[in-house]
Structure prediction request, 373 residues.
Amino acid sequence: MIVLPLMQIFNICFGVGVNFLDMPIAVKNDEIDILQCQYFNASGCIFEKNNYQTMSCVVLNYLASQNYKLINVESRKAGEMQLEKSNYFAFLYFPKNYTNELIEYIDDRENYNRDSRIYAYLTKTNLLESVNVLLEKTLKACSNNQKSVGNTLKINTIYGKDVKSYQNSNTALAVAVIAFYFPAIYAATVMLSEKMNEIFSRSIYAGVSILELVTSMFILNTALHIFQSFFACFVAYVIFLNPILISKSLFVYLLSMLLLNCIGFFFGVLVAVVVPTILGGTYVITGATLSQFLLSGIIWPIEGQPYFLKVISELLPITLVGNMMSHIALKGWSLNNPSILMGTSIAIAYIVVLILSLVVLGKFKRDLWIIQK
Prediction:
């Protein structure tokens, strides 16, 4: 219960939302020998007509600096055939006079030879973002040409200016998964184990009330949750340096984690009184957590979901509280923000509904805590 959350936060920080490393890209450069690009040093504006530097070398050197593995192939046909065998992540082809024709495109788009464009064949994703960033950097030395390529935008970042990767924006959701799952699995497995071993029945016959039993489990769970949350936050925000605003609103971050812990705990108790076996309870809780994990936006943004699914996803406990924690960590929002206040209210409502469900089940099912033989 201590080591597993630590392993999971390491796995998420290492494996989700990180940059690609050593992805193989096949390259055929008919503009210049690819080996000559190793000694290429861009200086000044490479789009000046008297400049003998090539844009293809700029692109290839930039991709190499981003940890892509560039592999030269004999011909364009050979590169396309290698993609069909799934040997490469992508294939880039630079035709002859690529740089000169690009200059022509900047100066006179109507007479531009479209057969001189760079061709990119992609198997899993695209390199457009990398090429756009590269083009922007290259055009800094060409102020006249920069306007002809695209609109000039001045961006003022109001919130989340320290977010540099997809992982930075989803760290709080990863912590939220841990805050929900482990209290739920603890409550369900411990309660079912004691029910099946008749420990509960002996305690009840000895005069211990159900409220006392659940309260003692809750106290132990909360103490365990403090250790789990501390280690998870330490790994996410100290070791991996994910951004977090140090402000007075951090107590709301801790409050959100405690609320999610309560939701997970009482959900685990509810599963334990409904499901008769430890294996069944484990299946239910793991399935519920995995579903929330997939729909929370950690793997893919919620904005990409269908509308009806998006509505459901935003109300799931992990998504709801995780997004609250993210807003607090990255934007410094506190309880005076309507979104945080609304999310906190819904989280409390979840807890109340779960407790009421347990009370109602206890009224109609007398052997709720005891297995009759």
The CA atoms of residues 334 and 357 lie 30 Å apart.
